[in-house]
Structure formats: C-alpha cells, structure tokens
Specification:
With 277 residues, the chain is α/β, with parallel strands linked by helices. It is built from 6 helices and 15 strands.
C-alpha cells in the first residue's frame, strides 16, 4: 500500500521565517485490521475523531507522531496509519519515531518516512530521538542517539531546539508508568543542560497531559489519541478524559506556545475496570 503523505524533506521550505504550526499526536495503537480495540476502545474511531478535529480547528505545517503508532508493530498497521493521515493531510509533512510497541524496520518498509532525524524550519531545529529498547516497555536513548543529539546541538548552537521522543525522561507521578522512564535520562539532561538553545523536550507514552520545567526547558507530555491513563495514580487506572492532541506555535524569535485540545465529549466503549494492557 502506498501513501501520498509528504516526506518530511519534500515540502518547500517556505516556513523558514515566521511561525510554524506543529501538531503532535501520539500513542494511536492502531491495529493491522480495521476497528481493533485497546481496552475496549476502537482505536480507528478515536484516531479519526482526533484527526477530524485537527483538520477542522488547526493549521498544521508539520505533524509529529511520537511513537506507539501501532499496537502490534506489523507493517499493515503502519500502511493503514499512513493512509489515514493521507486522507486528512495529504500535503503536510509527517515526522514519526518509534515507541515500545513499534517495529522501526516495518515503519521504514511501508514508506520513506523518518524514524529518527531532524528538521529545520522557522528558525528552529526539531530533533526526533529513538528511545525504544527492542522487546521492552522502558526507554533508553543509548550512546548513538545521545551522540547524535550532542552533534546536532553543537552544530547549531544559536538555533532554538525542540526535542521529541517517546518515553518520559523524568517521573510523572505514577509509579506503574514511571518504572518505564528513560533509563539514561541523566545523560540526556547533561547534554541539554549544556546547550541553552534547547527550549522543549516533548514525549508521549504516558497517555496523559503533563508539564514541568528544568531550567529554561519546557518538559511536556501529550495525551494519546485513544485511551487515557489516570494521572497521579500509582496503580494502572484508565481515565475518563477524552482522546486528544497537542498544538505548538513556534516563532522565529525562539519562543513558542502550546495547548492540548481534546475531542468533544462522546461515548466510547472503554473497559474502565482494566488493571493493565
């Protein structure tokens, strides 16, 4: 199955100056077959609901998907994802990176979309990192990714940078999910602390909204397009909050603003009593 989704490097660089509107979606958990469910929720339905809201309400210059695109890592699930994105945003560049449920080889096999690279626009350096540990739930960047980050930041010392990855680099206050924090996060922060141009680190994985700061760096998580997890719960619990997405407006002066939007209240079939997934 082919896709017309614009490759990240193919869009005309008309947004080098001025504002860049970035939409972040994450943890879609799409199945290889239509209408598969996660904890009772039809992940096709919720993804369509989110994309419809973005299409209606937002201007998207770039879509960033921060992992767990697939629920099974199969190539068909990624082909399905690209086709769905194409139905809503056929001309919008797409960046994606793998989560713990993803298979990077299958991501590459279905389209010429980057698993890990960077993108320059509107005076910003966007860096996409791979925090996946094959076969494990937790995250690690590893020596190669950390070296790539150091190299990219050192090569662009005066360009404000936004970093995206899948796993959370710090605890978010829920013991069950915080066991999967990036295990070399201290090395990540050692690099970002030494590069004051870093303005943002953003991730998915935790299926909830989160924000904190480290020095002048915003640390931000984006909710899932499907099931949400209850914040500040040490045990696994599903939240009643609706699926959502995050938008950013990056300005050429090195500032940005962001907000989370969710689909309007509606009825989904969700197993609220689930104790894991």
């Amino acid at each position: 199955m082919s896709s017309k989704v614009a490759r990240i490097g193919e869009k005309a660089r008309t947004t080098v100056m001025g504002e860049l509107n970035v939409v972040q979606i994450t943890d879609c958990h799409l199945g290889s077959q239509p209408n598969e469910r996660l904890l009772g929720l039809n992940t096709d339905q919720s993804l369509h609901d989110v994309l419809s809201a973005i299409q209606r309400d937002e201007k998207a210059d770039l879509i960033v998907t921060t992992g767990d695109i697939s629920n099974d890592g199969g190539p068909i699930s990624y082909a399905r994802f690209l086709k769905i994105i194409d139905d809503y945003f056929p001309e919008t560049p797409l960046a994606w990176l793998p989560g713990n449920h993803d298979d990077p080889a299958n991501m590459i096999a279905v389209g010429c979309h980057p698993v890990e690279r960077n993108y320059h626009a509107s005076g910003w350096n966007f860096i996409f990192l791979d925090s996946r540990i094959p076969g494990e739930e937790g995250g690690r960047l590893g020596a190669d990714e950390l070296a790539r980050l150091e190299r990219e930041l050192s090569n662009q010392p005066k360009v404000p940078a936004a970093i995206f990855l899948h796993h959370q680099p710090l605890p978010v206050g829920s013991a069950w999910v915080d066991q999967y924090v990036v295990d070399d996060a201290e090395d990540l922060f050692a690099i970002t602390d030494a590069h004051p141009q870093v303005k943002l680190i953003s991730w998915g994985h935790i299926h909830q909204e989160f924000s904190a700061r480290r020095n002048d760096v915003a640390l931000i998580a984006t909710p899932s397009t499907c099931v949400q997890f209850l914040p500040k719960s040490d045990e696994f619990k599903v939240d009643k909050t609706m699926p959502g997405y995050r938008t950013y407006r990056f300005c050429e002066d090195g500032t940005f603003n962001t907000r989370v939007s969710r689909i309007a209240e509606k009825t989904y079939s969700i197993d609220m009593a689930a104790t894991g997934y």
